[in-house]
Design goal:
Two copies of one chain form a homodimer.
Chain A: H1 3-18, H2 25-31, H3 36-42, H4 46-57, H5 63-70, H6 75-92, H7 94-103, H8 110-134, H9 143-163, H10 174-189
Helix pairs in contact in A: 1-4, 1-7, 2-3, 6-9, 6-10, 8-9, 9-10
The structure holds a DNA duplex.
DNA sequence: GGAGTAAGTTAGTGAGTACTAACAAACACA
DNA sequence: TGTGTTTGTTAGTACTCACTAACTTACTCC
């Protein structure tokens, strides 16, 4: 890892943790094991460090292709794949997302950048539901509403696990929660195929 | 509003918006229309202002009683009431929750405080589902899992609408999303009573 | 060995920030 | 009228922070 990389890695971690003002150039340099002078030789000022760090550590995913190649038109398996993809993306971008929540208004275009994936996912989910409906595999429904609820559920889980410290609210594993959430939507979208019986 | 109140109101808003370090005592005093000196006559230091502001603006709710009196054992109506209660609480505590996300590690006990309501709600939801099951109104299920998913869904919606600025992802109203989310869980928990048909 | 490049060291500047001291003004109430 | 209380004002302290200048050291490649 070269000097630029070292600095940016420490910067993105520390700013996500302590906020932009809370992470000082001195601390960043120290933790990156370079002198503060070196830091300013590589970047003209602190703001540019943040921008470069976001640039370096925001991973963009082309979900359209990802979807096209992996959907198998089995609601349970597809939704699971989508939820897992969602969490993979969000976790990779965890630091940038945290920074967007706390400093979004200070960094030009950051909110838009961070909203891109969810918006894409929403559109793809709607199209997926429409195609599933055409194939007679799920019921008629307001698919935008359902897509948003699926996303909100995933988002809530992600935020809760990633940013809220302290005693946890549940001991359930992330995997179990994700599988459970998929099951909820299966039952919602294919209500007559469930095996449960009211006793 | 007396001087204490004015200061605390401005402080909680500004710290939630800019972070603890980003909100300076000078700015707080200015916006509260008092001199900085007055601010320090009312509170010994900045940290104590934050603590007092959290104390003043964190609203605690006794959900147990609220539930006991308002449940009518109609899944749709009860879940809607619970979701609305959840959003009312979260919105009232919006500033404190934001501060908990960004400065949780700096304020003793803040995370625990903020996790209390969700934990209570989870327990009450589980008990509610168990009772509904006893009454033969919903299917057997992993109720902790279902309760958590319901909460995550509500949480995701809340965070998204409260803290994520920029172009919105959907134009659906909050009310519609909440109603939709309740419908998802109705179909999940009473799968044979739905009226939809797969075409 | 010499030249070029990246890094460290030291010392510093100017601005901002939390917080204080001292005194003056305004007001309430007896 | 006099006294206590609250607030404003002004000036200042000690510290931290982003950022710079100038010089030195280490490494590489020829």
């Amino acid at each position: 890892m070269n000097t630029d990389e070292k600095i940016l890695k420490v910067a993105i971690d520390m700013i996500a943790k302590k906020g932009y003002k809370g992470a000082t150039t001195k601390q960043i340099a120290e933790k990156a094991a370079v002198s503060e002078m070196t830091l300013f030789r590589h970047f003209p000022n602190k703001k540019k460090i943040l921008e470069a760090a976001i640039d370096r550590y925001y991973y963009s995913f082309q979900m359209k292709e990802l979807f096209d190649h992996n959907l198998i038109w089995d609601l349970g398996k597809d939704l699971l794949m989508i939820a897992e993809t969602y969490h993979t993306i969000m976790k990779k971008n965890k630091n940038v997302i945290k920074i967007a929540i706390q400093e979004g208004h200070n960094v030009q275009g950051l909110n838009e950048q961070v909203n891109k994936h969810p918006r894409q996912l929403k559109e793809l989910l709607i199209k997926y539901f429409e195609e599933m409906n055409k194939r007679g595999l799920i019921i008629d429904d307001d698919y935008e509403l359902t897509a948003m609820n699926f996303l909100y559920m995933s988002y809530g889980l992600f935020i809760s696990r990633s940013f809220v410290q302290g005693q946890t609210i549940t001991t359930l594993s992330e995997d179990d929660v994700i599988k459970g959430s998929v099951q909820v939507f299966i039952n919602h979208l294919t209500p007559n195929q469930v095996s449960h019986e009211i006793h």
